[in-house]
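hey can u check if this looks right to u? its 385 residues, i copy pasted from the old doc so theres a chance i mangled smth
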Amino acid sequence: MKKRDLKEELFYKKVEIEKLEGRMKELENSLKFYTNIVSALSHSRDLKSDLEVLLSDIKENYRLDEIAVLLYNEETGLLDVYAASGLSDVKREKTFLPGEGISGEAFREGKIIEVERAGRDPRFKHWGIPSPVYLSKSFISIPIIIDSLKIGVLSVTADAITPSLKNVLFTLINSLIPILNLKMEKERQEQIFFETLIGILDLIESMSPFFKGHSQRVARYAKFLGEKAKLPKNEMDVLSKGSLLHDIGKIGLIEITIKKGKLTPKEMEKMKEHPLIGEKFMRRFEFLKDTIPIIKYHHERIDGKGYPGELSSNEIPLLVRIVSISDVYDAITSSRPYRRERPFKYAIEEMKKVKGSQLDAELVDMFISDLKELKELTYSLKSIF
């Protein structure tokens, strides 16, 4: 063999070896990802947080723009972003109807949808934020299905959707399916338990001529104010649960709660223990831990003269201050053992008097900013509860 031919053959062999080395490196990285995915998810105690880390790793190593797991919310009928990497806070709040956008269509049809130049596809919704960047991007949405039940999608935006990336995405989904199945069952059980707690509290309140429907009304007033304050969805969820449960400690004070006559000074003091009783009771339930500040501190005051007397001013969390306003307003507009319910106009004047001392002044102003709307809500709740 001529020297020139030998050099040429060695050159091509070297190129082949480099290709094989590159392929081996790719396989090694893929194997590493597969191992990390299975290990992280199978031992996960906080699925959402661990999944966020995994998605971030995949995004970085495969040079993705965005990757997100969207799960179907049976209560709202929408696809919500459960975990993601590369999405802005605004995009994380984006929801899709089944059939809306490429992700929504992949979910509804139960089929993988892959498109190039996604921004040119009329189905693509740009995560709610149109951008020319997507004109050159590829997009894939893979449905997540458990025993023929569609529960969500995994969606990715990148320069290109490669076969090796698809393998990683399929591995991720296959590892997620049994864990998400357990998560769904756990959430079902938690919801049943939560509804049972609310049922017990409603029953206790119904036994009193003064507190019937109180927690339900407080929850509606809290939602009313939370929406005016433009709280994000996750905080609205905590506000909803916490406002419904704010008086859960009264379960330990049933005799006083359902008493028909005026409370004695001793009973009044005893009743002030209900926030701490509620806090102690709720500590046992990890999935409701975010509601504990509302339960414990809803009788604290801005001037520090409330109870249990641990917080004042802005030390009191925002959600607690919202529930405090709702609680006080409902107390004024409802009958109590020591007086009859007050009319709407009187209640508004009382709210103005206590703002800045008992209640957060800015939030009170927000609460009473539209008197017509508040009045309609007040009378509609009176008719229901």
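The CA atoms of residues 80 and 95 lie 5 Å apart.
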